[in-house]
User: Fold this.
Amino acid sequence: MRPEELRGRQAAGAVPPEELDRLVQREFAVIGARLRRVDGVAKVTGRAVYTDDLTFPGMLHGKILRSPHPHARIVSIDASEALALPGVHAVVTGRDMPVPYGIIPWTRDEYPLCVDRVRYIGDGVAAVAAVDEETANRALGLIRVEYEPLHAFLEPEEALDPPAGAEPIHAPTKPGRNGNVTKHVHLEFGDVDAELAASDVVVEGEYFFEGTTHTAIEPHCAIGYYDPTGKLTVWSATQVPHYLQRELARVLDLDVARVRVVQPAVGGAFGGKSEPFDLEFCVAKLAMATGRPVKILYTREEVFYAHRGRHPMKMRHRLGASADGRLRAVDAQTLIDGGAYASFGLVTTYYSGQLLTAPYRFGSYRFDSTRVYTNKPACGPKRGHGSVQPRFALEVQLDKLAERLGVDPIELRRRNFLGADTRTINELRVQSNGFLMCLEAVERASGWKERFRRLPYGRGLGVAGSCYISGTNYPIYPNAMPQSAAQIQLERSGRVTVFTGASEIGQGSDSVPAYIVAEELGVPLDYVRVVSADTDLVPVDLGAYSSRETLMMGNAVLDAARKLRKRVVASMARVWEIPPERVALVGGWALDRTDPERRVPISEAFNIAEAEHGALGATGSYDTPKDVHGAYRGGTIGASPAYSFTAHVAEVEVEPETGVVRVERIWVAHDCGRALNPVLVEGQIEGSTYMGFAEALMEAQVFKGPEQGRAGLHNAPSLLDYRIPTSVDTPELHALIVESVDPEGPYGAKEAGEGPLHSSIPAIANAIFDAVGVRLDALPFSPPAVWRALQDPAARARWEATHGARRAEVAAD
Assistant:
């Protein structure tokens, strides 16, 4: 094709000229439209390539030998028989990788393979590389390990107060400290004791949130290759390629510039792949030992033991209020079961208190949280990290307060609304806040005013609200560099390529940059290519955790795109001899806003700009504001550029004879700032709410106790036995988008991937109370638990009293 033909060619997918005038008049041409995902076709047709789909010439298969003991000293390891087995190429142990690692730099307490002690059933002890999985599994059976069993701590209370002579799970960080304590945080804002004493009503409660795991469909998988030049490449189903690259280099003593991490398509993560795991170090070390590619794919059982899921939490809350329902004091004490290693536990301990202070205004607030080690798989970040559990406790407390005061639960929440452009009691800056709109949306959609406390026995409505971060304000390791960066390259045909380190894990982070570029540069969506999550090719982004990608990566892409837009617009303005503000790039065209007949295809505009400026490319970056939190110790943890807000109303049916709870429908209104693509936002809202519903009714990551034999063994490490809802079990989900444009987000966008989970759980709990008059303060709400609660003779009387009072109130109105 001759250059002049290329320059004048209309972009495939460009808006027809007769529709341009309408498009130019709109605030946005692409943003806010209901668009497809850029990776959607590949995923639904089976063409997406996941880590386990990759094969390489000469590739070996690895397996990891795991501990049968919850806590034991390793006396000796003999791998000679395994090495003698035909087809085995290498065996590595903890002595081959004696450098500890951890996602948080201050709490590195884990080794790629255990060096001198195992700390839970499933802890990795040795790894084998062989010609196939069958041979590798046979080799594991030939490795002889001698253990000296130690006292196993399976309950957090015992870990907190260990018996005399019991060896702690980890060595104390300082003399006289308990080695079983990961982190203790005590923070107080205002005089809580005085405010409680002055309150007209005080509500107290003890709550338990059972541990749960992620159940991503794709198991963890990694492939390592160490080439003859000394360059290590690891392909991994990770959600943090940058952090993994850094830890691989540090632990294996390699130059980080010679370590490449590639993230293929990921089949779900939800926080369960947001830190390095033993298999990534093992494939790297085995590849270095053999000179051949090595793959390790976890079995489903190994995924359950790798875990890093929701922490079990035991919570004691006190809430004081005035007679009109204003919150004067909140006092929260939390004991957190962390499992065998720290993982994100330092942050979890803070999040269990710091993220509770919105969307409501507290008169005073205190929280005391302690995370302890136990000899079980390590807990970590699951969707809504650290704040789902305390949100359950607080929102049930508010429901109890509303009952005590005879106030409508939605009205109580309105009275305590935090507001916008303000600070929480713990000094976190909140700008946009659409919580009142969320309450109004679910109130209207559910028919709350007409139906609350008026449904027949066995049916009920419950409400709850919540708040969540749009990314953490500071990176995991301290540095002054941007949190996210992007590069954009314009090609003469009109094609645009975006390079970003963001990790696509199903949430749409490959699609968001395409929408932004299509909006800013006026190209059809099909003309945008997104290259992501390959540390050799893309600038740094810190990964997919804490709902950070849309805000942080989106701002970086927007920065780069606007730099390029400025150049293209300036060139067209000079050619047409008009002011730059009259030039529009939209729908595959460059045109004059006041004379749409003056237009050229976007490819020609790019050619004109390249002729003036040279090759067209730009970089963009984003870093967070630093004035969004208090100056006290720990004040940075929980700080975020922006906060999302959510309200849920759940409708349930309870069978009194069996205790079976059926959640019929859930209305969820989520303030996501501006919805860049409503289809993706609705999908995230529904997915989050589904996961909350699952945790409320079914999920439990539990382990056998000493009385059951094999203490510390997982009770149900399979998707057959670990219960999650099927499509048949799932209620009707009504996703309601609320937009309170935030000045910090790209086009005003905030998060939508984690916030909508939080208040689904207490909304269900509160709906059960409305249905049958029983409070369920411990998860999950299984049929036996509900049935036992219903055996309380006072339960029916409570239901009669609350519903009678409501009927009298309605009659009076």
About this structure: The first helix runs from residue 3 to 8. Residues 1-8 have pLDDT under 50 and may be disordered.
